[in-house]
Write a structure and sequence with these properties.
Strand content: 25-35%
Protein name: MBL fold metallo-hydrolase
CATH superfamily: Ribonuclease Z/Hydroxyacylglutathione hydrolase-like
Organism: Guptibacillus hwajinpoensis
CATH class: Alpha Beta
Bound molecules: zinc ion
GO molecular function, one term: 3'-tRNA processing endoribonuclease activity
Number of strands: 14
Pfam families: Lactamase_B_2 (PF12706)
CATH architecture: 4-Layer Sandwich
Helix content: 10-25%
Number of domains: 1
Keywords: Hydrolase, Zinc
Amino acid sequence: MKMTVLGPWGGYPKAGEASAGYLFQSEGYNLLIDCGSGVLAKLQHHLSVEELDSVIISHYHPDHIADVGVLYHGRLIQSKTKYELPVLPIYGHSHDEAGFNNLGHEPYTEARSYTEEDRLELGPFSITFQKTKHPVVCFAMRITDGKHTVVFTADSSYIKEFEVFSAGADLLISECNLYADMDGSKMGHMNSTDAATIASAANVSTLMLTHLPHFGELSDLQKDAKHYFDGEVVLASTGLVWDSEEEI
Ligand SMILES: [Zn+2]
Ligand SMILES: [Zn+2]
């Protein structure tokens, strides 16, 4: 399994970069998790919009869905100019009806709902969900291709449930929107200590810190996390690839 960071930024993208977006690839299948601002431009460094097989959205904050509309445009334009593409399924929860209804523009993209009880089977991937603690309803995802497992926390403050949900994962992609001395419990975000605590309790191999803040010294996030987690800690960055067959 290969995972490529398309957008490491929380809230909004830095100049020339993107907010939340992660490309998962296995056995020729291309799955996009979240589709934030700038993600479509970054995606095309790796594959064309017509090569995408499905999309899952964690929640309906703009930094996770801003490019859903232009993704529809991309599929429409390629369908008209090249060849007719199959409808692109975009999965989202239906706790927010307006947010969910905005995902689909048929016949190019189609909104499909998931719930916390579901196990989505998409190509080689099997995905389960965990509700997070965030100002709007949001779901973390555990993604496996049968050989390797990646957990993505999406947006959340620390919840104990993450420790079981992430158990034994090869990679934990944890949001880390705050520095160690900042309390995210009311904001719906985590700091570096929270992320490392989960990684340690869940005994994951690698912790990747993402949804990065636009202030402070980012390397401090990594330094602090290393105090609480013995495994590998990496900072997400645009284009960074995690490949289950290789070391980062
Ligand atoms: Zn966010
Ligand atoms: Zn959010």
